[in-house]
Design goal:
This protein is mainly α. Helices cover about 50% and strands about 10% of the residues. It has helices at about 25-35, 60-70, 75-90, 95-105, 105-120, 145-155, 160-175, 180-185, 190-200, 220-225, 240-245, 245-255, 265-270, 275-310, and strands at about 1-5, 5-10, 130-135, 135-140, 175-180, 205-210, 215-220. It has a three-stranded antiparallel sheet. Strands 1-2 form a two-stranded antiparallel ribbon. Strands 3-4 form a two-stranded antiparallel ribbon. Strand 6 and strand 7 form a beta hairpin. Helix 3 packs across helix 5 (about 105-120) and helix 7 packs across helix 9. The model is unreliable at about 1-10 and about 320-325 (pLDDT under 50).
């Protein structure tokens, strides 16, 4: 600060120094920070990126005809890849008719492609297996890799209780069936089990029976076929097939449901005097019945021999006399 003749005055700082004027003028700063000229895109109206709801729906028949003409030009390998792609994105099994409506490929060619794909994606060879389930075709995880897939997805394996399996088996083999009929076979109340099976969509209501009380009829659903990987209900094993199983296979099937009795109980039963007497009495009765059977068979043999001797006996021939002698008067 300096003093002059007119008293003290502030010294004007030089441009660019702290506290002094900046290097740009106020007009230049306003030109940069102000509103500026209007954007050139503001004069255009924004285009719509959504489908116009007022537009007429596409002609499905015309588009399907175009799809048919295009599908006729596909090679065998290309048809197989198209069917494979559609089945891969499908959320449920697709029938041949559904594949035809989706691709426009002839049904015979679709069947050939499915046959080829089932050979490529088969159990033990591919990680994705093609199954024919619930009247359609579906890609599924290889059963041998199920443990790893469940670990990745962090899901538990779906299991059914013994009561649920018994009830579901009765419904599958006897459908349409009512709840009293199920309970009559099992001998216990099945209301809670049937409700649990319906919640899992394995069982559905088919209608009501035309009788007193109109009881509800239950049957299996499409999800039941998908759950057990069955093509249809005819793929269920028959009771005859179960009875024809070997003893070894029966033990495997009944291992969990019918455990073997403990050895200690068997030894105690054999050491029981009453049990021994019953066994001896049963053995004596069996021997007596066997002796009676042998005597009856011997009597039958004797009767047969007598009958044969009677049938084989021929009447004696009359004696012939001398024809040359005189005849009696």
């Amino acid at each position: 600060m300096t003093t002059g003749s007119n008293g003290p005055q502030d010294e004007t700082p030089e441009p660019g120094t702290p506290g002094g004027p900046g290097p740009f003028s106020e007009e230049e700063i306003a030109a940069v920070t102000g509103p500026g000229p209007a954007d050139e895109l503001d004069e255009f109206e924004a285009a719509s990126i959504e489908e116009d709801s007022d537009e007429a729906p596409p002609d499905l028949e015309t588009s399907f005809e175009k799809l048919l003409s295009k599908s006729r030009k596909l090679s065998t390998d290309r048809i197989r890849t198209v069917i494979e792609s559609v089945l891969f994105v499908a959320e449920r099994p697709l029938s041949v008719d559904e594949l035809y409506m989706a691709t426009g490929i002839e049904r015979e060619l679709i069947a050939e492609a499915l046959n080829q794909l089932s050979g490529i994606h088969r159990d033990g060879i591919s990680g994705i297996v093609l199954y024919e389930v619930a009247g359609g075709w579906q890609f599924r995880t290889d059963p041998h890799s199920g443990e790893y897939v469940r670990r990745y997805l962090r899901v538990k394996p779906q299991r059914l209780t013994r009561a649920a399996v018994e009830t579901l088996a009765i419904i599958a083999y006897r459908q349409p069936v009512t709840r009293p009929e199920i309970e009559d076979i099992r001998g216990v109340d099945c209301g809670a089990v049937i409700k649990a099976l319906m919640d899992r969509k394995l069982v559905k209501i088919l209608g009501k029976r035309e009788e007193v009380g109109r009881p509800i009829l239950y049957g299996t659903s499409r999800e039941f076929l998908e759950f057990f990987a069955l093509k249809d209900l005819s793929a269920l094993p028959t009771l005859r097939e179960f009875h024809e199983l070997t003893q070894e296979h029966r033990e495997i099937v009944e291992k969990e449901d019918k455990p073997a009795p403990p050895a200690a109980g068997t030894v105690e039963a054999l050491s029981d005097p009453a049990f021994t007497k019953r066994m001896e009495k049963s053995a004596a009765a069996s021997e007596a019945a066997l002796e009676d059977l042998e005597e009856a068979m011997a009597a039958a043999d004797r009767t047969q021999q007598v009958s044969s001797s009677v049938l084989d006996t021929t009447p004696p021939k009359p004696e012939t006399g001398d024809t040359t002698g005189p005849k009696p008067e």
